[in-house]
Design brief:
Length: 155
């Protein structure tokens, strides 16, 4: 019998205690304060997964809070990235701080029941993770072991 996705994620959270977390942000827009990205929590970043003390999240956009300065941009995409970094700074993140935006909650119970949610799925009875958009699935247990070791080694 293989451990469930819930069991594996709970063990990873326990193993990560004391390791550095990164900021979780959400976009806000108001008439008075304009567009900004505000802090709504923090999580451990494990590749395609973000783990909080209580939830598993699927990563999306990752950026670093920064002042856009006064630059000429050759590409529209570079200007947009600079604006996003400035929105995080305006929302209260510190200069240079990593911010995750657009993440989504993974339904781990659905995975444990044999389904899929976000990058997680039960494949042949084994909790698995799709580690890249183009990649296949790999066992979640091995993925978490490797990612936790990398994160703990970096702290």
């Amino acid at each position: 019998m293989h451990p469930t996705a819930s069991d594996l994620l709970t063990r990873a959270v326990d193993d990560l205690a004391g390791s550095p977390k990164e900021g979780l942000g959400e976009e806000r827009d108001s008439r008075w304060r304009g567009k900004r990205i505000v802090r709504v929590g923090e999580a451990w970043h494990l590749g395609v997964l973000l783990l909080t003390d209580t939830h598993a999240l699927a990563t999306a956009e990752v950026l670093r809070a920064a002042d856009p300065g006064r630059r000429g941009y050759t590409a529209e995409s570079a200007r947009e990235r600079a604006e996003r970094r400035a929105e995080a700074l305006k929302g209260g993140f510190d200069e240079g701080e990593v911010v995750h935006v657009g993440w989504s909650v993974i339904d781990v119970d659905a995975v444990d029941a044999g389904g899929a949610s976000g990058p997680l799925a039960l494949v042949d009875g084994i909790p698995s993770v799709r580690w890249s958009a183009a990649g296949g699935f790999m066992p979640l247990e091995a993925y978490l072991r490797e990612r936790v070791e990398l994160l703990r080694g970096a702290s």
